[in-house]
Amino acid sequence: MRLARCECLLLIALVINLLIFYYITKIQYSLDKCVCSLDTTDLEVQESLFNNNIRKENLVTVVIREFEEFDNRVSGMVTSVLEVLPGVNIVIIVDTLPYPPLELPESDLVHIVSLHVTPDQALLKRRPEYHIKSKYVLFLPDGVKLTSKRQILNMAEKTSLLSPPYRMTAASTQYESLECEDVKFDIRTWTLNYSKAKLCSALEGYPVLMMETKYLFNLSDPFARPFPSALFVQTSVHHWKIHILADITFLQDIQLFSNPHHQWKHKKNIKERLVQFYHNFGVKKVTKASGRTEWYGCAKDTERCFGTVINDMPDYIYSGRWTPPCCLKALRETAHHVFAILEESKVIYWLEGGSLLGAARNGDIIPWDYDVDVGIYLDEIKNCELLQKAETQAVVDEAGFVWEKATEGDFYRVQYSQTNRLHVDIYPFFSRRGIMTKNTWMKSHKQDTEFPEHYLKPLEKINFIGMDVSAPNNVRDFLEYKFGKGVVENPLYPNTRKVS
Asked: Closest Cα partner for 402 from 300, 262, 250?
């Protein structure tokens, strides 16, 4: 009886084990079949998910910005996007409505956004952000045709994996390789500096770009032209970098501007757009990666970059900027010319005020100063023919500089040109019982005071704007006498209370 019971228990255990083995085998078979099915349809599954993301999650918006009305391939680009990326919004951003009109496929997904203000158009309709509500923005240069959904999927995936400082991905086209550059925009000094680099903040070429929309709309003017050069200047302010996708290349229909006249016109338009962009963003000097310097500020035949100075504080200081580099360049040229004339005329002169302070600090004009100050002995005027003539009327010398009597008081002014009024001020002093004084005092210049003549006996030399010029002896004592203790080591704006 006891044996029969044991046999029953063993039999039951055997049956249970057989059942467990059967179900494990069945489950394993099902999993293998599923994995095999996923392997064979992986591409189709991803593309299906991508299509659903495009439609349901509004994954990407295609933006076309830089093209010429007289020669473009926008129509073909739009057609290729509609075929390859069904459901994707296409935004064509223009300054004014193109003429002749673009011949585009009829689709509710295609939007032309004109930035031009018209009396009958609502504000939102001319704001690109009203039409771009996707997670990513894909910028296509003119002539690019989409042929593969996988390229966009890969670009979106790699853009999503970016970490700071990278904020954009870029891919090249078949005709144009991309060259990596670094650009630094020093807003305070109005300058752009380009250099060759391994980490890209700018690109030479015609890149296809993708970035998150939230970053795009953190920029001041994300659709400024020429695009994308203007975009890179703005992203460089945030220290963002661009990741080049070497394994992705886009098809370019045909090379544009095969007509020589169209080539000339296109280059002319790009140059004009660049000049306008630099004007809008306050770029006066650009140093290219090649070392070439380009100037976009004032010159002899233009007015200076700023207006009338009130309370010794030029308007640019309130914007957190210093004297534009083109103005400093003009001041240096004018000062060089004035020093040469005074020395040739045997006139005793010395560097004065803020100009002497700049010389003591770093041998140059103070970065935010707007003129150069020079002192002379009153009775030395007779030794300089140009100063004598300027007593009665303005005189233009052989180099185009204008010598005149200042309207603000009893002193002289040498201007860069008849048009550009950047200048050197020449103040005549005379000695009265060992104290140097003059007839006109500038109330806005706190340092404009009398001083002991012994600072001029003898005069010394100091380096200023690349040359040795006359200066009072014991320069530090002289400057502290006029400005106060520690003035050389502690630079301050003329009126710090008015600058936050």
From this structure: 300
To which residue do tokens 């010319």 refer? Answer: 337
pLDDT in tens, 310-344: 988 999 999 999 999 999 999 999 999 999 999 99
- The CA-CA-CA angle for residues 272, 276, 279, to 5°, reads 140
Number of continuous H segments (helices) and E segments (strands) in the chain? 11, 23
pLDDT digits (tens, 9 = 90+) for 344-355: 999 999 999 999
Query: What distance in Å separates the CA atoms of residue 123 and residue 151, rounded to the nearest whole number?
Result: 35
Whether residue 91 contacts residue 62, with contact meaning beta carbons closer than 8 Å, is answered with yes
Q: How confident is the model at residue 53 (pLDDT cuts 50, 70, 90)?
A: low
**Cβ contact 463:483 at 8 Å:** no
Task: Name the pLDDT band for 38 (thresholds 50, 70, 90).
Answer: very low
- In eight-state DSSP terms, residue 71 is B
Q: Left if phi > 0, otherwise alpha if psi is -120 to 50, otherwise beta: which for 40?
A: alpha
Of all residues in the chain, the percent with pLDDT exceeding 70 is: 87
Cβ contact 297:323 at 8 Å:
no
CA distance 347 to 335: 15
Beta bridge pairs of residue 144: 252
Say which residues have a Cβ less than 8 Å from residue 432's Cβ, sequence separation at least 6: none
Give me the amino acid identity at 110: V
Q: What is the pLDDT of residue 48?
A: 55
Q: How confident is the model at residue 499 (pLDDT cuts 50, 70, 90)?
A: low
DSSP-assigned letter for residue 310: B
Helix (H, G, I), strand (E, B) or coil at 429: strand
* CA 127 centroid distance within chain: 22
| Contact between residue 184 and residue 192 where contact means Cβ atoms under 8 Å apart | yes
For residue 275, the model assigns a pLDDT of 98
Long-range contacts of 260-267 (CB under 8 A, 24+ apart): 262/68, 262/70, 262/71, 265/68, 265/70, 266/68, 266/71
Distances (CA, A) of 389 to 47, 67, 128, 372, 398: 83, 57, 60, 21, 14
Contact assessment for residue 142 and residue 67, using Cβ atoms and an 8 Å cutoff:
yes
Structure tokens at 243: 């990741």
The token duo for 129 is: 């952000």
Among candidate residues 398, 406, 442, 445, the one with its CA nearest the CA of residue 423: 406
Q: How far apart are CA 311 and CA 313, in angstroms?
A: 5
Residues 440, 443: Cα–Cα separation, whole Å: 10
| Helix, strand, coil in percent for the chain, rounding step 5 | 35, 25, 40
User: What is the reported pLDDT for 243?
Assistant: 98
Q: Are 377 and 406 in contact (CB under 8 A)?
A: no
Identity (one letter) of the amino acid at 303?
A: E
Angle at 199 between CA 197 and CA 201, to 5 degrees: 90
Rg of the Cα atoms in the chain: 36
